[in-house]
Specification:
The complex is a heterotrimer of chains A (436), B (434) and C (439). Chain A is an alpha/beta fold. Chain A is 38% helix and 14% strand. Helices cover 40% and strands 13% of the residues of chain C. In chain C, the strands form 3 sheets. Chain C has a 6-stranded parallel beta sheet with strand order 3-2-1-4-5-6. The chains are: A alpha/beta (436), B alpha/beta (434), C alpha/beta (439). The interface between B and C is large, with 178 and 176 residues.
Chain lengths: 436, 434, 439
């Protein structure tokens, strides 16, 4: 096609030609990354010396170095980087100049910080009325908790997910990989796109206020509704749902809650199967029959060989009976390996799935077949690193790696020199004064 | 109890003269080394006649310049033009740990004191030679003095104001501020190596080369970027304001300059008429935004400080002439001391551009740190010496007055070399010890 | 084979900013294992220009390159508790600590000398500050210009028509750093002898005040103040320049030469005078200097004792003499204007007239003398795909030569080497310390 990567980014992507100034820290990285993946020119604005988040591991070959953070790499693919300290008088002026070139500003400072710098939305709007400013904060820009400090885990908790995660006999459990920031980032990307759509129609920019807590709460799905519907009844029974079930799932019923196991140990790891999806619908019933056939072929169906799945109803089945069925199925699972069971399950349409480790994911032929993985060259490391690829496949504007995550201030010469026309002397002055 | 001295038991045979060499050995002496200056009435160190001297005094012992750079030493007279003199010099060298000279490279070998020969005689010796141009090379035997070396080494080319004559620092900086310390550093590193291994060595410091080592990145800027750096006046690449600001002049109706009656007559054309205006200046340096805010506060936030022309460092650099004019209008009304204290209280680096009178009489800080040291001199009376700029917790240095010419002949020849009195007398009469 | 290093067994922790970088550079070049402790993200000295190919980048500062040769770099944040713990571990392995924090800073962090001495009794600690650790100005701020101002160097540099002049290339910082390197090694010798460490307080102001040549004695003995008079060596007021002919700065065809007299005992004597006049005469530019009267006068001007005697015994004769000297200088000056600086330099030096030239930085780099002595050295910078020419060492040691063995370190380049291999921290711990902003 003969187009350079940069031209492809501008011409063949959804957000080509739109510019994002990304002031976020890890709370908002995924927002900018998502927009960058869609082709926007996302400029990561780092403090001189580099983002603090470049200190977050793991590191390439375990070398803790700001240019080797795999965490930072993962969150900043396709972005460009400049260094700028907006707290200096010069930095402040430069930022205002950059605002003229920007379509989006995304930030995750404490509420009020940008206002204190004189760079709040009301100021930015004066400079560039079309600009969309998206703020990603733990609890949003308003409300009594807006100034509360938070970490990823705290937001996971305050979002209500942590309470329902983990073993019943243990304290609520965080996800072992930080999650809430990513949810916040994705919601911010979404919010920014909504505002963008509005701007395309009206020409107006606006301020988008993203609360990470709220973003996390939206992942609770039906939990809130369940509380609405069953709340009083469950409260009477001293049951708070969704509760931590560990490997189990607790199904609310009028009689007494039913506890069924979801995560099962197998020969080489874990698989997922649930009695809750074993009866009722035709699909569930077919799945259960196919599973019993599989067990039978291995001589392990026992008394379930002729079990009438059509009659199985999770609202009425007794806990004893459920436990008995599960004990037979569970024994079978222990005898088979993940891969075996997956192969068989796909063939015979059993609702059963392996619990993948990261290694399993990487070796999963399906993702490879879909071209999910992207090999990204890091010339400075003299190495190639494999990244997860497109979060969505779009035929007309396929996802691409435009450039590897930037080095600290890598694009200072492009932005300050070529674009803003700063002379070398000025660049040196600004560097020496630690403005850039 | 005897005070601990860091360089106790280290003996230096000091063949140096003029500026840089004696400075090296002065530093060693003040920290406890026994420095023996080998002088001769046949070849008197010209600095012994260099001004200043007290009114009416003029002898080999009365130069204030010489005294200040030769405290803590012993002086012997030894005529190296005589074979016997060389023989005795060798004996002294054998009893020493360090030998120092700052001749051009041809001199020591000509005296039969080339380093290879000496090291062969005593391998544990550390020999320091400080020729200007170094051994070898087409200009090896060219000579120069400290202030000239700065010009040669490029320091004058990057000092001063653009378009003005490259007059440099006004003194022989490489002799007093740069090379003695470089030389001592090498010498002391070699001493440490000797402490470990017993091995001595030869150190050559070419004064010209050593001076090009203190130009920060000026050399690299040329070798890498092909940029020939020039003078910047008092400005700095990334600071504004940064410079010398004129303050309120001091008017004097009398001069305390000490002159003899004849000198008064001879110098009257140069004295001028009262009142004498003493120019007063203060250096101010503002690098950060915080310092700039401190500065604005200190000058009382007049309206010009709020001008957008000065709101950022880049803008202050762009409008630096105008900025300096505003500041000088302010400083002109104040003494430099007022300016310094006021700015420092507001977190801004500022300092009086001090002259000798300021340093010796007005600077309360130097006084409290007891920097200047007064010692009684047999011919001159009380004489002030520069103190030491490093204070050691365990082995503090000390200033002892400079020696009279040949003052320690008896001690060195008698006690150190063990010569009987008659022999000393004989050599004195024979002109060996002169 | 690598030659012996004078300070090969010495470890130095380098917590120095611009005031002390040259000090630790010298010691590193002499073979000491100097560990530069940088703030996470890199030392602020890396922001200082000029930069490699003018690209302002913390890994491309030529200023940094020049002052950090042979050092190793780790990143460490002393503001954190863990950072201080790690620092204390490192401290046990060190002989010397060199720092330039404001007085009291380390003390406040629990790292004052008395505390450190408990950890490492033989430790030598050298603190370099603008005004020293004691006295009323100890907390005053200073950059180089304030150091050279307060130390008395700035007052007498330059010409009366210009403001006092700050010498180029931070000579206040250099004076302080050089004083510190000497002081540190004196203390090292004491430690070699006794095992005892100590604390050294170095003041930039006093370091500068120590290099003022004759200005202090002039005030001490005569109450005369030395002011700037446009010469390379300034005379105190009101003492006129009663020096030899062709003394100090003279313009020539392509620049400037700096004379140090002619016909004096140390400027070639009359033999040199005759050669100079012959040279001038051969181009019809000697004027009346060919006459014997001037020859005698030139010799008298070269004799300090004679001039002194004349001044006190015959003030009028003395004034006359000064006027005559001006006549000689005018004629010599006119002649010099027809010659290039190197023509003059290479012609008169062999006659033992100690004249030199004002060289630009380019002249210095191209100087055949330095080239013949192989003063400049080439240093590889693999990251930049470049070989950079550096000024060499200020001195040459026959047994343990100082030299550039390694280019200046990258930010935290030796974190693994020191933290993992030496202090035994695990990669997981290191990743934790990195995330916590400790390293």
């Amino acid at each position: 096609m003969g187009l350079s990567m940069a031209d492809q980014q501008v011409q063949n992507s959804l957000l080509g030609g739109f510019r994002v100034l990304d002031l976020t820290d890890e709370k908002g990285f995924l927002c900018g990354k998502t927009l960058a993946d869609l082709g926007a020119d996302v400029i990561k604005v780092e403090k001189p010396g580099g983002d603090q988040a470049r200190n977050i591991g793991p590191f390439y070959k375990d070398i803790p170095n700001r240019e080797k953070s795999l965490y930072w790499f993962a969150c900043n693919l396709n972005k460009r980087s400049i260094t700028l300290d907006m707290e200096t008088a010069d930095g402040h002026e430069i930022f205002k100049t950059l605002i003229n070139t920007a379509d989006f500003v995304i930030e995750s400072f404490d509420p009020g910080y940008m206002d204190e710098l004189g760079l709040g939305y009301s100021e930015l709007e004066k400079i560039n009325p079309r600009v969309i400013m998206t703020s990603i904060t733990p609890f949003g820009q308003t409300g009594p908790y807006k100034d509360h400090k938070a970490s990823d885990m705290i937001l996971w908790s305050m979002g209500g997910v942590q309470y329902s995660t983990g073993e019943p006999d243990f304290p609520p459990l965080q996800m072992s990989l930080p999650q809430s920031y990513f949810h916040g980032g994705l919601h911010a990307a979404m919010g920014s796109m909504m505002a963008h759509y509005h701007r395309q129609r009206t020409g107006e920019g606006q301020h988008v206020d993203v609360s990470i807590q709220q973003a996390v709460m939206l992942t609770l799905m039906i939990a809130a509704e369940v509380w609405e519907l069953y709340g009083q009844a469950l409260k009477d029974m001293a049951v708070i749902l969704p509760a931590r079930g560990g490997a189990f799932r607790i199904i609310p019923r009028i009689s007494s809650p039913l506890k069924t196991r979801m995560i099962w140990p197998c020969k080489d790891g874990y698989i997922i199967w649930s009695l809750a999806v074993s009866g009722g619908s035709a699909g569930n019933i077919a799945s259960s029959r196919a599973l019993i056939n599989m067990m039978d072929r291995n001589g392990m169906a026992g008394r379930l060989k002729d079990y009438d799945w059509a009659k199985m109803d999770t609202l009425t089945i007794t806990q004893e009976e459920a436990d008995d069925i599960e004990s037979i199925v569970g024994k079978f699972f222990l005898a088979v390996a993940k891969a075996e069971i997956l192969k068989e399950a796909v063939k015979t349409k059993v609702f059963i799935a392996p619990v993948f480790t990261v290694k399993d994911i990487c070796e999963y032929p399906h993702l490879e077949a879909r071209g999910f993985w992207a090999d990204v060259a890091h010339p400075e490391l003299e190495d190639i690193i494999t990244y997860p690829g497109a979060f969505v496949t779009i035929d007309e504007a396929p996802w691409k790696v435009y450039h590897r995550p930037p080095l600290i201030g890598e694009h200072n010469p492009d932005i300050y020199g070529k674009e803003l026309g700063f002379l070398k002397d000025r660049m040196v002055l600004l560097k020496q004064a630690n403005v850039i | 109890m005897k005070k601990k001295k860091a360089l106790d038991k280290i003996r230096v045979a000091d063949f140096t003269w003029w500026g840089v060499g004696p400075y090296v050995t002065k530093l060693l002496g003040s920290m406890g080394a026994e420095v023996i200056r080998i002088e001769s009435m046949e070849r008197i160190d010209p600095i012994r006649f260099a001004p200043p001297m007290k009114p009416g005094q003029f002898s080999v012992n009365t130069s204030g310049y010489w005294n200040n750079f030769n405290p803590n030493k012993l002086s012997i007279t030894l005529n190296l033009a005589r074979e016997k003199g060389i023989e005795i010099a060798k004996k002294l060298i054998m009893r020493s740990d360090i030998v120092a000279d700052n001749f051009t490279p041809r001199v020591m070998p000509k005296l039969g004191l080339g380093y290879e020969k000496i090291l062969e005689m005593k391998p544990s010796l550390i020999l320091l030679s400080m020729p200007v141009m170094g051994r070898g090379g087409p200009r090896s035997n060219f000579s120069a003095f400290g202030h000239q070396i700065a010009g040669l080494a490029g320091l004058n080319a990057i000092s001063g104001f653009p378009g003005r004559p490259p007059s440099g620092t006004g003194n022989a900086l490489s002799d007093f501020g740069i090379n003695p310390y470089q030389a001592s550093t090498a010498l002391l590193a070699a001493l440490h190596y000797r402490n470990k291994t017993g091995k001595g060595q030869f150190i050559e410091l070419a004064q010209y080369e050593a001076t090009t080592c203190v130009l920060e990145a000026a050399i690299l800027d040329y070798t890498v970027n092909k940029r020939i750096q020039g003078p910047m006046g008092n400005r700095h690449l990334h600071a504004a304001p940064h410079g010398a600001y004129r303050c309120k002049d001091e008017e004097r109706w009398t001069l305390n300059i000490r002159l003899t009656e004849q000198e008064k007559k001879a110098l009257s054309p140069y004295l001028g008429d009262p009142p004498w205006a003493e120019e007063r200046w203060c250096a101010i340096a503002v690098f950060t935004d915080e310092e700039w805010r401190g500065f604005c506060g200190a000058v009382g936030n007049p309206s010009w400080t709020e001008d957008r022309k000065f709101s950022t460092l880049s803008k202050r650099k762009e409008n630096e002439d105008e900025l300096d004019a505003h500041i000088e209008a302010w400083s002109r009304e104040r003494t430099p001391e007022e300016v310094m204290h006021l700015l420092q209280k507001n977190g801004v680096a500022a300092g009086v551009i001090q002259n000798s009178e300021d340093l010796m009489e007005k600077d309360t800080h130097l006084k409290e740190r007891e920097f200047y040291q007064v010692r009684e001199h047999p011919e001159m009376g009380p004489v002030t010496y520069d103190g030491l700029q490093f204070k050691f917790s365990e082995t503090p240095g000390e200033i002892e007055r400079a020696p009279l010419m040949g003052e320690h002949n008896e001690y060195v020849y008698g006690k150190i070399l063990g010569m009987p009195e008659e022999e000393i007398n004989q050599y004195t009469v024979d002109g060996i010890f002169m | 084979m690598d030659s012996e290093k004078a300070l090969g067994d010495i470890r130095i922790l380098d917590l120095a900013g611009p005031m002390g970088l040259y000090c630790t550079k010298l010691l590193a070049d002499l073979g000491a294992d100097v560990i530069k402790i940088e703030k996470p993200g890199g030392d602020p000295s890396r922001w200082m220009g000029p930069f490699f190919h003018d690209d302002p980048h913390p890994e491309k500062s030529l200023y940094w390159f020049n002052l950090n040769t042979n050092k190793r770099s780790i990143t460490l944040n002393l503001e954190t508790v863990d950072g201080r713990k790690i620092f204390k571990k490192l401290l046990k392995t060190a002989d010397l600590l060199i720092e330039t924090f404001p007085p009291g800073y380390l003390e406040k962090k629990g790292l004052g000398y008395s505390m450190m001495k408990e950890i490492n009794p033989g430790l030598i600690m050298t603190s370099i500050t603008p005004f020293g650790q004691t006295g009323p100005y100890k907390n005053y701020r200073a950059y180089d210009i304030v150091g050279v101002a307060m130390g008395g160097l700035m007052f007498f540099g330059g010409s009366p028509e210009d403001p006092p002049n700050q010498p180029g290339a931070s000579q206040g910082y250099h004076a302080a750093g050089l004083s510190a390197s000497e002081a540190s090694l004196i203390a090292l010798h004491h430690k070699d002898m006794t095992g005892e460490g100590q604390y050294i307080d170095v003041s930039m102001q006093e370091s500068v005040a120590n290099c003022l040549m004759w200005t202090m004695p002039f005030y001490d003995l005569r109450k005369a103040i030395t002011t700037r008079d446009g010469r390379c060596v300034t005379s105190p007021r009101p003492f006129p320049r009663i020096s030899m002919a062709w003394y100090d700065l003279f313009p020539c065809k392509d620049g400037w030469v700096v004379g140090h007299g002619v016909a004096g005992a140390f400027s070639g004597g009359l033999e040199a005078w005759d050669k100079l006049i012959d040279w001038m005469d051969s181009e019809d530019m000697a004027g009346d200097l060919v006459e014997d009267e001037w020859r005698v006068l030139a010799e008298q001007l070269g004799d300090a004792a004679y001039l002194h005697t004349l001044m006190v015994s015959d003030p009028e004769g003395f004034t006359n003499m000064v006027a005559k000297k001006d006549h000689i200088d005018r004629i010599i000056g006119n002649f010099l204007m027809t010659k290039t600086k190197l023509e003059i330099y290479d012609t008169v030096q062999p006659w033992r007239i100690p004249t030199t030239v004002i060289q630009t930085i380019k002249d210095v780099v191209k100087d055949p003398q330095l080239e013949a002595r192989q003063f400049f050295v080439e240093v590889e910078h693999p990251e930049l795909n470049a070989t950079v020419t550096y000024p060499g060492m200020p001195y040459r040691l026959s047994e343990t030569p100082a030299k550039i063995r390694r280019r200046a370190p990258l930010i935290g380049e030796h974190n693994q080497e020191i933290y993992e291999s030496e202090l035994g921290l695990s990669p997981t711990e290191l990743a934790g310390f990195k995330a916590g902003g400790v390293i």
